[in-house]
C-alpha cells in the first residue's frame, strides 16, 4: 500500500548523504563542494528542487542525518509544497558535531527516553509531523520489538495518523521484519511501513518484503546502488562494476546506477525506491531507471552472501 500521490513515480530522495558532511557512500568526499552548513543546505535544496521538478514526491530523512530534517523542513516551508510525503526515523543520535574525522558519527539507542526526546525534535525540525516514522535500523537483538513502553508510544502515534514502522539493516533483515510483522499492541498491529536494504548484491530480504507488502505494508527500499558499489565510483573506479551490470548499462545507454535501480523497481513488492544522490547530476542518472525495463531476476547471479555483503559495508570509511 503506497502513500505517494496519484501519478507520482515510485521514487524517493534519501538525505543520508546530504544532511551531514561525512557519509560512507563511495565518492562522497568529491560530491560536496562546500561542507559548511550553509553550503550543504544549498546543495541539499538544489537536489530537492531537481527531484521535485522530476515528479518525486517522497523524501526520507532521520534524526541522525545531521541537519537532514532541518534542511528538508526549511525547504518545504520555503517552497510551500504540501504534496511531499515525508519519512523520518528515530533511534540514532548524531554525535559527530559536523566533523568528518569524528571517531563516532552516530549512537544507537532504541529506548523510550530516546523516542520521547526525538519525536518533538523531529516535529520542530520538519515544521510538521512526518507521514512515516520508523525505528531506525531495528534489529532482533536490540530488543526494541519487545519493548512494551516503546511499542505503546508508537501505537499512539499510529492512532494519531502517522504511519509507524521500522527500517532494517544487517544480514538478519528478514528475521527482524518477520518479527515486526507479528507485533501486536492491544491486539492490533502498530506497524505498516518498512524501509529495507535491497539491491542486486544483497537481495536476501526479498521474500520477507513480499510478505510485508502482501500484509498491506508500504515497502520502501534503500541502498539500491549499494553505497556506490554499483555506480561508476565502484570500490576503486568504474572497473569494479559487475560486468553483467556494466553490459546492461551500455546496452541501454545509461550509467550502471540506473540499471541497478531499475532492478529494484522491477520487484513487484517495491512501493518506493530511494535515490541517495548527493548531486543533481547523480539524481538525473538515477532517475533514468524509471524509463528502463529490467527483468526482476535479470541480475540474480550477482548476489553475495548476506554476511559478506554487510561485512564489506561495515568497512566502508566515512568520508
UniProtKB/TrEMBL annotation:
All copies of domain NADP-dependent oxidoreductase, residue ranges: 42-299
Gene3D superfamilies: NADP-dependent oxidoreductase domain
Domain of life: Bacteria
InterPro entries membership: AKR2_Oxidoreductase, NAD(P)_OxRdtase_dom_sf, NADP_OxRdtase_dom
Pfam families in UniProt: Aldo_ket_red
PANTHER family: D-THREO-ALDOSE 1-DEHYDROGENASE (PTHR43312), NADP-DEPENDENT OXIDOREDUCTASE DOMAIN-CONTAINING PROTEIN (PTHR43312:SF1)
Protein name: Oxidoreductase
Organism: Deinococcus radiotolerans
Amino acid at each position: 500500500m503506497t502513500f505517494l500521490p496519484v501519478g507520482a513515480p515510485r521514487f524517493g530522495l534519501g538525505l543520508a548523504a546530504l544532511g551531514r558532511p561525512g557519509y560512507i557512500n563511495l565518492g562522497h568526499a568529491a560530491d560536496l563542494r562546500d561542507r559548511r552548513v550553509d553550503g550543504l543546505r544549498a546543495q541539499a535544496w538544489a537536489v530537492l528542487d531537481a527531484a521535485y521538478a522530476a515528479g518525486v514526491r517522497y523524501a526520507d530523512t532521520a534524526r541522525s542525518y545531521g541537519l537532514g530534517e532541518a534542511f528538508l523542513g526549511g525547504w518545504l516551508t520555503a517552497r510551500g509544497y504540501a504534496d511531499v510525503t515525508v519519512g523520518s526515523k528515530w533511534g540514532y543520535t548524531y554525535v559527530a558535531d559536523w566533523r568528518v574525522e569524528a571517531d563516532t558519527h552516530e549512537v544507537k539507542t532504541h529506548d523510550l527516553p530516546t523516542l520521547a526526546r526525538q519525536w518533538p525534535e523531529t516535529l520542530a525540525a520538519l515544521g510538521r509531523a512526518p507521514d512515516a516514522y520508523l525505528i531506525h535500523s531495528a534489529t532482533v537483538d536490540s530488543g526494541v520489538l519487545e519493548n512494551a513502553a516503546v511499542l505503546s508510544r508508537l501505537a499512539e502515534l499510529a492512532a494519531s495518523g502517522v504511519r509507524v514502522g521500522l527500517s532494517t539493516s544487517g544480514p538478519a533483515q528478514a528475521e527482524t521484519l518477520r518479527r515486526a510483522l507479528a507485533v501486536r499492541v492491544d491486539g492490533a498491529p502498530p506497524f505498516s511501513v518498512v524501509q529495507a536494504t535491497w539491491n542486486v548484491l544483497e537481495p536476501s530480504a526479498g521474500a520477507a518484503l513480499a510478505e510485508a507488502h502482501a500484509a498491506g505494508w508500504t515497502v520502501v527500499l534503500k541502498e539500491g546502488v549499494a553505497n556506490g558499489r554499483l555506480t561508476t565510483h565502484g570500490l576503486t573506479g568504474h572497473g569494479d562494476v559487475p560486468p553483467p551490470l556494466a553490459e546492461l548499462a551500455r546496452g541501454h545507454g545509461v550509467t550502471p546506477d540506473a540499471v541497478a535501480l531499475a532492478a529494484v523497481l522491477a520487484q513487484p513488492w517495491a512501493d518506493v525506491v530511494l535515490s541517495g544522490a548527493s548531486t543533481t547530476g547523480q539524481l538525473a542518472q538515477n532517475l533514468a531507471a524509471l524509463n528502463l525495463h529490467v527483468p526482476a531476476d535479470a541480475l540474480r547471479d550477482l548476489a553475495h552472501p548476506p554476511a559478506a555483503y554487510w561485512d564489506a559495508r561495515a568497512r566502508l570509511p566515512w568520508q
